[in-house]
What does this fold into?
Amino acid sequence: MAHLAVSQMAVTVPVGSDLSIRRSGFKASSFSFQDKSWAPAFTLDLKANSSFVRSRQVICLSVPVQQATGPKVTVSPLELEEAPEPPLNLHKPKQPYTATIVSVERIVGPKAPGETCHIVIDHDGNVPYWEGQSYGVIPPGENPKKPGSPHNVRLYSIASTRYGDSFDGKTASLCVRRAVYYDPDTGKEDPSKNGVCSNFLCNSKPGDKVQVTGPSGKVMLLPEDDPNATHIMIGTGTGVAPFRGYLRRMFMESVPTFKFGGLAWLFLGVANTDSLLYHDEFTKYLKDYPTNFRYDIALSREQKNKNGGKMYVQDKIEEYSDEIFKLLDNGAHIYFCGLRGMMPGIQETLKRVADQRGENWDEKLSQLKKNKQWHVEVY
Ligand code: FAD
It folds into this structure.
């Protein structure tokens, strides 16, 4: 059971004024992370049913701020908690840090198109980072475009908190999708054109060395000045990576300097049930922190939108647009992460919704950017 510490003083309500919050819950996925080394010890057993069932319920919110203080892992605060600025580019491409692979695990089910792996890297405390930053990886071998030189750096969003999955500040986790090339004429895989770095990472074994640069990036840092803020996260595929880090910081770790009492709302778009990423962790937060966490998913190959087309994250955004716009008007942060191609459809939807509401989207967007509420990292 979650324990909600109710503060008597503040009166911030993390959702719309009607004091109700719809909570999406998911029973069952066809795979389980039960025995994964990176999963928390208290992972739920969700493998009972292979069909995907979506249930919703309406619950009441009490007015006071409710700090997310459920069953958390106590961490020893790192010096990083005191630093005024995030670490940046401690290791440059010319002098990367040689880290060690701890584990590589496929985290999608058999029916997922493509392969995504959760990769834990041991940096022994030498490449510290904040949630939302990225690591650079230089794959071994020679850059075919510059013979004699190493490959270019590839960036990967870090999917863990600064404490890492082992909670000691010595590891970083990445969520990597293997880039595979299919010949458009034959439809067959052409391994000579497969992505160099993603395949190196997904093929690596515990103990292998990996050249790491960074950390880099500031746009996706989690603003922590207001622990009762609302954070709306829109991710597609591996774009979920920074959000996993945020959510572990909010709901899994007991960090004295950040006691989250706001609302975190994750919209995750993937192809099908088997492609869901970190679903067990997120479902656990729904159970333990029903007033602080919302989780909505769009399964493009399994669900239909209201027009009978494929269900994409923008369709989910549209479904909840009234609430989302209200939350943004009240200062919510909104984050987008994933493939670059996700943004045009989302922008179109937000503009259409704004038009319907008699609002000017361009003005609203520039205000959101000016207020530092708008965070985008697409690749
Ligand atoms: P590359 O070798 O760079 O190849 C790129 C693509 O070209 C591949 O699809 C490959 O199949 C194709 N290709 C290769 N040769 C040919 C050819 N001759 N003809 C046609 N096509 C060819 N990725 C993640 O998986 N997870 C993340 O969290 C993540 N975060 C990122 C964060 C940022 C800020 C950025 C900028 C990128 C991020 N990426 C992430 C993407 C990542 O950096 C790489 O771009 C990705 O893994 C592909 O790199 P690669 O070396 O495997 O492919």
